[in-house]
Specification:
Blueprint lengths: L7 E9 L9 E9 L6 E8 L2 H6 L6 H10 L1 H9 L4 H25 L10 E5 L5 H11 L11 E3 H12 L19 H16 L11 H4 L55 E5 L3 H5 L7 E5 L28 E2 L7 E2 L2 H14 L1
Parallel strand pairs: 1-4, 4-5
Antiparallel strand pairs: 1-2, 2-3, 6-7, 8-9
Helix pairs in contact: 2-3, 6-7
Length: 354
């Protein structure tokens, strides 16, 4: 069973006199405190905002949007032009509404016998990542007031609904799945209620009815090689998974003492002790399924850089026939010296090979 949401969810909607900017003049503000699990409306706020006050605080308008407001919602624009509720007053009402709703969430849970949600936070929902939430933050900044919720609690209705559509093929914001709208379109309070109705439907979508994805299309299980499941030479892919491990070591003739198993999925992976120089053609290298032609080269542990060793100007020398590199004995404070035990080990090894 899904856990009941502990946060204070508030749907926000603004009517503005510009859209292609981060700081449009606000003419109407509405917010609805609701239960996101059931869609129940718990409280609401709706207030007009003086257009003149928004302009005085540095918010902007554009001619295209003003023309649209006069055609589509002329009464809302007229109310804003005539009302005496300033932008700071409207913002203050919203802040008080958010704090009151947060306290109400705790009270309701206690009355229902649920544990007090110490981690409950106000979640402010807007329809679009760059719309209402961005615009209201610009208004708070213009009024030099603190936003009463964290930036990471700005929530997007459109994102949730589109993700449900992407996974189930059902878009609850559009007919025929969208719930019937109550009230006028582009009325801030009506828009809040409509958005609440269809986001609740989207969240309650029975995910068990969604088509079960093919396990072979998801990829290998954690801890396995992704390339190991690729089809070989155009064959049919299987769901076989190969645990990831270190390259296999084996003896080889000649002076090469250490090599790694050649495999098309690991030929480009270099370890601290092994290196592979490419000997294949460009055509072979571009095809993952083509076997790689490699020339294994060994690196001695003595040639690996550590706090006590250096390459002594011979970084390109990767063969193992040369004497041990010099070391600096920092404890004695002396210059580079050969370690006697290592030198004797090297001579002994050379004698065995001859």
């Amino acid at each position: 069973m899904r856990q009941k949401d502990v946060h204070t969810n508030i749907m926000l909607d603004l009517e503005c006199a510009a859209i292609d900017t981060h700081n449009p003049a606000i003419i109407e503000l509405a917010a609805v405190y609701f239960d996101i699990d059931t869609g129940e409306e718990l409280d609401s706020l709706c207030t007009p905002v003086s257009l003149q006050s928004s302009l005085e605080h540095g918010l902007v308008t554009d001619d295209n949007t003003l023309g649209w407001l006069k055609r589509e919602i002329p009464q809302t624009l007229k109310t804003s032009q005539e009302c005496c509720i300033s932008l700071p007053q409207a913002i203050m009402r919203l802040s008080k509404f958010v704090k009151k709703s947060l306290r109400e969430t705790e009270t309701r849970r206690i009355k229902a016998g649920l544990p007090k949600p110490y981690k409950s936070q106000p979640m402010i929902w807007g329809n679009g990542t760059m719309a209402d939430n961005t615009w209201i933050r610009s208004a708070y900044k213009a009024c030099s007031m603190e936003v009463p919720w964290k930036y990471y609690n700005d929530m997007c209705v459109r994102t949730v609904v589109k993700q449900v559509w992407a996974q189930t093929g059902k878009d609850y914001s559009l007919p025929p799945l969208a719930p019937p709208r109550q009230g006028l379109k582009h009325d801030a309070l009506s828009d809040c209620r409509f958005q609440i109705a269809y986001i609740v439907l989207a969240r309650n979508e029975p995910w068990s009815e969604a088509p079960t994805p093919d396990p072979s299309a998801i990829g290998p299980a954690p801890g396995t090689s992704a390339l190991a499941a690729l089809p070989v030479n155009g064959g049919t892919s299987t769901t076989r998974s190969t645990p990831i491990g270190y390259p296999e070591e084996k003896k080889a003739p000649g002076n090469v003492r250490r090599t790694m198993a050649v495999h098309h999925s690991t030929r480009r992976l270099l370890s601290p002790e092994t290196s592979v120089s490419r000997g294949s053609t460009e055509a072979e290298d571009d095809c993952l399924t083509a076997p790689a032609v490699t020339r294994p080269v060994s690196l001695s542990k003595r040639q690996l850089l550590t706090p006590e060793t250096s390459f002594n100007g011979k970084e390109s020398d990767c063969e193992d026939e040369s004497p041990p590199v010099k070391r600096v004995d920092y404890k004695l404070g002396s210059g580079p010296e050969f370690q006697e035990a290592e030198w004797l080990e090297f001579l002994e090894q050379e004698a065995k090979e001859r």
